[in-house]
Amino acid sequence: MATPRLRALDDGRKPRRKRSGHPRKPPAPLRPLHSLWRRTIDQLDIVPVALPVRDLAPALEGVVACQISDFHVDRDEDLARLEAAVVRINQQQPDLVFLTGDYFSGGPTMRRYLADFRRVLAELKPSSGVFAILGNHDHHASFTLISDALKRAGARVLANEHQRVMLNHEPLNIVGIDDLWSHRAEPARAFRGLAPSESSIVLAHNPDTALYTRHLAPGVMLSGHTHGGVVRIPFYGSPIRSLLRIGKNYYAGLNRYNEFYIYTNRGLGTFWLRIRINCRPEISRFTLTRLADSAAGVAPAPEHHVRRRRAHRLRAAG
After folding, report:
1. Separation in Å, CA 106 to CA 103, 296, 307
2. pLDDT tens across 164-180, in order?
3. Average pLDDT over all residues of the chain
């Protein structure tokens, strides 16, 4: 007995396509504008960064790591963008890959795309491991299901903990701090057992986590969360640049904060507003370098940022 698909073909009718996350093609007059819009949200930038790490061992200089963040896999096009990013990352032949949260926007899209998400990330091939943390949206969706998918894809999920990696016969500590907005960040717990002189790369979804981490002597912090500001106006920056309590400079790129640097990745996906202006999706390609001891010319961060609303954003870290 012929299946419905075969019967449709026998009748000369096209089979009904499976419902997809792709939008229908726009009317012909709007297609050039649609194509330009899609390029702004799909064209990946590989951003090379000499990443200064405090107390980095000389043998670790030159280690290559890649970071992607804020996938927001809510449609087929988002999954395709992630697939393209994985291919580009593997071409860089990194030692390490860091995933810094907000993989889905919520529960419904997570359930739809979780299996494909796991399949795609399993294709990452760094020589020394994939490390992941979760963001605020992931906690709203399902910490358990997303963590399990990441682990099954070969990633090491760090939730207020660290793992030591040996590279070139030297240890490098990867520290993962859970999400700040979800009231799960416990920096002291994540650093427990580490001496201030030990090299570390800290993964923290929200750059504001640095306000509660600086006293723990991080080597460098990698974040996401801001989507690079989404809209970047020449000579001004992003209209959302003042949303971070840490300061208006930390919504994108490499910025020094007291005795260490923070790098904020622009992310792969979009949320709510499906636009990007002068702010294309980003794959960060880091080459580790030792941070010079001198902090000349760098103003200390204002103390009031740390004290303000601390109890509302940070769980007790025992």
Report:
1. 9, 44, 31
2. 999 999 999 999 999 99
3. 82
| Higher per-residue pLDDT: 228 or 94 | 94
Strand order, beta sheet including 253-257: 161-167, 170-177, 200-204, 220-223, 260-264, 253-257
Ranges 7-16, 38-47, 292-301: which has the least confidence: 7-16
Among 249, 242, 245, smallest CA distance to 298 is for: 249
pLDDT of 249: 80
To 5 degrees, how large is the angle CA 250–CA 253–CA 258? 50
Q: Residue 150's closest CA among 115, 180, 176?
A: 115
How far is 300 from 293, CA to CA, in rounded Å? 15
Q: Percentage helix, strand, coil, to 5, in the chain?
A: 30, 25, 45
- Residue among 175, 194, 195 nearest 185 (CA): 175
- How far is it, in rounded angstroms, from Cα 251 to Cα 263? 9
Fold of 44-292+303-310: Purple Acid Phosphatase; chain A, domain 2 (3.60.21)
pTM, 2 dp = 0.81
CA distance 223 to 204: 5
Question: pLDDT-based confidence at 127, cuts 50/70/90?
Answer: very high
Q: How far apart are CA 38 and CA 46, in angstroms?
A: 18
Residues facing residue 204 across a β-bridge? 177
Nearest to 206 by CA among 174, 243, 155, 151: 243
Place of tokens 């920056």: 237
Beta bridge partners of 287: 50, 64
How many residues belong to the chain?
A: 318
pLDDT, tens digit, 9 for 90 and up, residues 182-220? 999 999 999 999 998 999 999 999 999 999 999 999 999
Tokens of 51: 């990443």
Sequence letter at residue 209: T
- Within 8 A by CB and 6+ apart from 288, the residues are 51, 53, 56, 60, 61, 62, 63, 64, 65
For 7, 71, 112, 152, 253, the CA distances from 117, given in Å and listed in that order, are: 33, 10, 10, 11, 26
